[in-house]
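in:
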């Protein structure tokens, strides 16, 4: 990917990818995986595992059924289904197989939002949790409602239509063709995990809302390579910290997410993850360094608006230096232009303009003509003006913010103008403006500042309830009353000058003590608002998943067993404080003087090293003898030879798994015979016996076997009590003090 300084004789600086993938559809991509991996797991939602062959048969049958319901090629089908289920993804694939485009709306969004989106898109039918329902008047509104015979989708057909936030208060529908979507899938396939490609052994997390275009990346990271898509319930994803055990349990190896979520995950929950893809927000350098983990994991930073098919450019992160959004995907062209539309020089900053195969289109022809107008300075007949400021460097692009008032919170793109319009339309509001503020916990908070006609009589909770009925979930702001909105000399609202943190609520002040006072202080820091009474609700105050995770992180220092779900179940301050009072806090650390191992015991340990070193040397010597025997068998006269029977005996005892664990147990078990649970003196007999037994097991190489079957055999030889159907993946204690019940 080179920076071209001159194209068609016009001085330019822009990034062009070398080539785009051959034109095909997403169904072509999926069927290619079906042919290569028919028996591989395709979707695993925890209740059932469907293979690629099973999913292919299901969507073919459902596509035929959809046509019988009036869904013809070119139609549009709404998706309004609960997360975490295989049925959600079967509905999407079936819609595509029928030649229709799917139109997703988050199931948590209000009904009015769904009606608005489905009405603008003119959907022929809607998949819900209860099945499919057809829509009235769909023939008149939907250009795809025709009598056309069933057929597979074509590259120029739309595959999905996703609605984004609009500056006028009305969401904008963005239609993406199969050609663009398949090119995106193929381009990413040439970037990620080139040394150890994605395949049936991988399990890809599906944790994002399907109304968020990054969910398309999750799905097709799996389905383009024969990997398994593993849907996560929304409650698990929202919990943040509690997602970790779920990822480990479900053997997730690939994650595509937003930096906000990734920043909440401890390193321990990513043990089995070999690739993380970040996007939707700016990535902090410290997060990149932590995720890269010294090169043990492949981490990518991606950038791309919905209007350019999910991702337009990407950079593999090294964990050091400034975080770049990288270079264009194959088939995408990127340019950085100044206010006059002219390309900036290397090192210059300007607006990012996108061209190439990834360009989508708006359903609104006027909006499409405005945002995808020609770019004469580049010679492009169609270009998308992103509104993002970036810096052009020889190694790629660096994100620098927004030209307009569009922001991102939790990966969701929000037009502040849409929120301004909604709050200004509230009854009793004279003027309103929204802004994004940061709490002490580092969480981004959307706040709407209102100037009320009658401040003394204005009901903030009632106003928030009205907004929840009209705005999408996650876009409802926290409300604050102000006397006036600060303005700039231009007359526009000065959002940076809006007050923060918020002043106390109008509720009467209450002295909170004990656990309630402690919890109130944490809540205030996390959500950026004063907590004035025991009846306050964490989420009514503006708390979200990130703020909840920060609160629980602090709570766990005193109550380790508390989860984010506990806060979701008890959002009222008094209830949550009472719940904590019913728990036992972690015991305080007691100071303890530990004497070193006595000199005499250290001398005994030194003597005991002799048999340990001898055993380790014997194992190495056996390997050399075995190599010499092989060399001699091949005709090497110089190779010294042990008698074959002796070599066989040594190899069986010192090199095979059976020999190693039998030899280890044969010494460790009698050595620790009679030792019972209790407290023993450092340097005493039990300490030295335990020390030698553990070192002996290491010298035998029993610790390196590492399979569940051999671990169970070793545990039994040591005297452990093992039930039926036990699955043991760690080395048992050398004491044999272990009881594993049936099927654990």
């Amino acid at each position: 990917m080179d920076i071209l300084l001159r194209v068609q004789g016009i001085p330019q600086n822009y990034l062009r990818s070398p080539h785009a993938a051959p034109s095909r559809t997403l169904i072509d991509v999926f069927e290619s995986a079906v042919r290569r991996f028919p028996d591989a797991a395709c979707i695993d939602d925890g209740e059932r595992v469907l293979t690629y062959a099973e999913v292919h048969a299901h969507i073919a049958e459902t596509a035929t059924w959809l046509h019988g319901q009036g869904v013809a090629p070119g139609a549009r089908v709404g998706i309004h289904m609960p997360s975490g289920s295989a049925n959600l993804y079967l509905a999407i694939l079936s819609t595509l197989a029928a030649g229709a485009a799917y139109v997703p709306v988050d199931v948590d969004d209000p009904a009015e939002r769904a009606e608005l989106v489905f009405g603008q898109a003119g959907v022929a039918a809607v998949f819900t949790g209860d099945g499919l329902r057809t829509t009235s008047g769909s023939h008149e509104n939907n250009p795809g409602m025709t009598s056309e015979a069933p057929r597979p989708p074509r590259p120029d057909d739309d595959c999905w239509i996703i609605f984004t936030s609009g500056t006028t208060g009305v969401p904008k529908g963005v239609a993406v063709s199969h050609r663009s979507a398949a090119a995106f899938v193929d381009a990413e396939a040439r970037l990620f995990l080139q040394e150890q490609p994605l395949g049936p052994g991988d399990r890809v997390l599906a944790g994002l809302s399907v109304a968020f275009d990054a969910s398309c990346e999750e799905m097709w990271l799996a389905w383009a390579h024969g990997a398994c898509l593993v849907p996560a319930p929304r409650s698990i994803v929202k919990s943040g910290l509690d997602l970790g055990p779920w990822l480990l349990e479900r053997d997730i190896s690939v994650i595509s997410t937003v930096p906000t979520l990734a920043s909440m995950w401890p390193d321990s929950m990513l043990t089995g993850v070999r690739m993380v893809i970040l996007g939707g927000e700016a990535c902090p350098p410290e997060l990149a360094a932590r995720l890269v983990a010294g090169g043990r994991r492949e981490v990518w930073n991606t950038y791309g608006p919905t209007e350019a098919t999910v991702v337009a450019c990407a950079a593999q992160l090294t964990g050091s230096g400034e975080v770049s959004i990288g270079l264009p995907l194959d088939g995408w062209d990127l340019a950085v232009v100044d206010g006059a539309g002219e390309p900036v020089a290397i090192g210059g900053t300007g607006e990012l303009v996108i061209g190439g195969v990834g360009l989508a289109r708006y359903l609104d022809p006027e909006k499409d003509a405005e945002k995808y107008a020609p770019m004469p300075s580049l010679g492009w007949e169609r270009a998308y003006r992103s509104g993002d400021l970036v810096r052009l460097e020889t190694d790629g692009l660096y994100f620098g913010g927004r030209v307009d008032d569009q922001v991102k919170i939790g990966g969701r793109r929000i037009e502040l103008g849409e929120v301004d319009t909604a709050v200004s339309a509230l009854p009793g509001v004279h003027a309103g403006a929204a802004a994004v503020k940061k709490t002490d916990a580092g969480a981004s908070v959307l706040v709407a500042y209102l100037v009320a006609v009658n401040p003394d009589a204005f009901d903030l909770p009632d106003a928030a309830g009205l907004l929840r009925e009209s705005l999408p979930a996650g876009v409802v702001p926290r409300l604050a009353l102000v006397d006036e909105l600060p303005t700039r000399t231009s007359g526009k609202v000065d959002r940076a000058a809006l007050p923060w943190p918020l002043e106390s609520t109008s509720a009467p002040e209450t002295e909170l003590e004990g656990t309630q006072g402690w919890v109130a202080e944490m809540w205030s820091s996390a959500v950026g608002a004063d907590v004035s009474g025991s009846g306050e609700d964490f989420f009514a105050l503006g708390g979200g998943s990130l703020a909840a995770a920060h609160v629980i992180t602090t709570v766990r220092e005193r109550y380790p067993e508390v989860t984010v779900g506990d806060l979701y179940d008890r959002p009222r301050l008094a209830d949550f404080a009472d719940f904590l009072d019913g728990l036992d806090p972690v015991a305080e650390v007691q100071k303890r003087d530990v004497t070193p191992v006595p000199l005499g015991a250290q001398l005994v340990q030194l003597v005991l090293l002799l048999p340990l070193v001898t055993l380790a040397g014997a194992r190495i010597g056996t390997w050399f003898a075995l190599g010499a025997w092989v060399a001699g068998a091949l005709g090497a006269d110089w190779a010294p030879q042990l008698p074959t029977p002796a070599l066989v005996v040594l190899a069986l005892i010192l090199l095979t798994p059976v020999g190693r664990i039998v030899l280890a147990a044969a010494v460790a078990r009698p050595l620790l015979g009679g030792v019972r649970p209790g407290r023993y003196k450092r340097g005493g007999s039990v300490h030295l016996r335990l020390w030698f037994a553990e070192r002996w097991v290491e010298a035998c190489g029993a610790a390196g076997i590492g399979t569940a079957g051999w671990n169970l055999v070793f545990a039994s030889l040591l005297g452990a009590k093992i039930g039926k159907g036990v699955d043991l993946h760690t080395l048992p204690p050398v004491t044999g003090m272990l009881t594993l019940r049936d099927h654990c």
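note: The first strand starts at residue 2 and ends at 7.
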